[in-house]
Amino acid sequence: MGMLFEPPVFRIMGDRALLVELGDRISPSINEKVRELFLKLDRRPLEGVVELVPSYRSLMVVYDPLKINLDRLQEAIRELHQATDPSLVPEPKTLSVPVVYGGEQGPDLEWVAAFHKISPEEVIRLHTGTVYRVYMIGFTPGYPYLGELPEGLATPRRETPRTAVPQGSVAIAQRQTGIYPVQSPGGWHILGWTPIKLFDAGQWPPTPLEMGDRVRFFPIQKEDIERWKPSKA
Fold first, then answer.
1. What's the domain range around 136?
2. Tell me: the pLDDT tens digits for 57-76?
3. What is the CATH number of the domain that holds 110?
4. Residue 18's CB: how many other CB atoms inside 10 A?
């Protein structure tokens, strides 16, 4: 489960950033506290705070020291952390994601099945049988780090990362799964591909997922791809 820090632990990161640690490891309960604090600070912005960067177990607060001093910032964060106004923390959304597994779209499906000594169909069953939490968004714009994979599907990263992973690739590594919103290098094992678009710089918000949301995968056939592609404006 991990230990929740009460009160939060503050770590000074240079002269204009403060790291707020909410716990000591990756866990849904600690990540939910990070999400709550992030949303509170986002919905009741403090003068002088210029950026918020949430992660698995901590929140980076970037601030302007000419507008708010460190003591006042820490005090305000403690107060917001203890606030109980439910309107500041909306319910998470659930996104259902269609996936074409295997073949050209999922070049590592067979390898993952062989690694675990199970069939490709069992890999797909395990991958689609869990509702995943969005622990954080990062690496590339809109990339969701999703957890946690069933123990029977925990897989080490590729020994040699790919230089180009196609946009829409659905991949796994350790106890995590994710979706590549843009083409990029990557070292995770690709199980499949989704036509769902996860990042669009021309829209707001640019991604349909936020920290704390839920993702459910379901299999589709290659011939069904067209019906799931986003409509063109």
1. 94-228
2. 999 999 999 999 999 999 99
3. 2.40.100.10
4. 19
